[in-house]
Amino acid sequence: GENVEQHPSTLSVQEGDSAVIKCTYSDSASNYFPWYKQELGKGPQLIIDIRSNVGEKKDQRIAVTLNKTAKHFSLHITETQPEDSAVYFCAASVDSGYALNFGKGTSLLVTP
Amino acid sequence: DAGVIQSPRHEVTEMGQEVTLRCKPISGHNSLFWYRQTMMRGLELLIYFNNNVPIDDSGMPEDRFSAKMPNASFSTLKIQPSEPRDSAVYFCASSPLAGVGETQYFGPGTRLLVL
Fold it and tell me: According to the model, what pLDDT value does residue B102 have?
């Protein structure tokens, strides 16, 4: 089955700096890659997603890049703010399926 | 839209007791998912329903776990008998359509502690 590896497990940045979280996946058939943000005591919330026919997608301060050849994708957050502090999860889904295979998460701390 | 509703938000029980977790998906959504989150294993899919029918329950850890979806607006996840290793946060998520690439909307979760 699909195996999603996520790094780093923890990340601390200063307010205004950029943060990058990287994920790799094992199943070359995967073609949907969402990113979720989970705040303390809440369920994961989708923040951005990318499909395999696109190499990069941006939404304000958030961007995701995908390299299908290398089977990795990354989340980039620019001009970080304290409210960006949360746990971020990447996921991958294979073409014929529906199940999201999640990475183990990255705990991001943005210090003022 | 109220989002996915889960109850209870917190549950503390003793080993051997029956536990029932409840979920109300977003109105109009056809797919419903139950996930379990632990520090060791992260987010794991337990079972997936499409149009109230269980499609894949391969993630259900043991026969002690069962899930039902009697109608489009309600699902339950039952653990009987519960064990301390079942302690986790259980999430319900719903999606408007079946298939890959459809956004899953998560509920706030039920934090279960089995003593």
Answer: 74
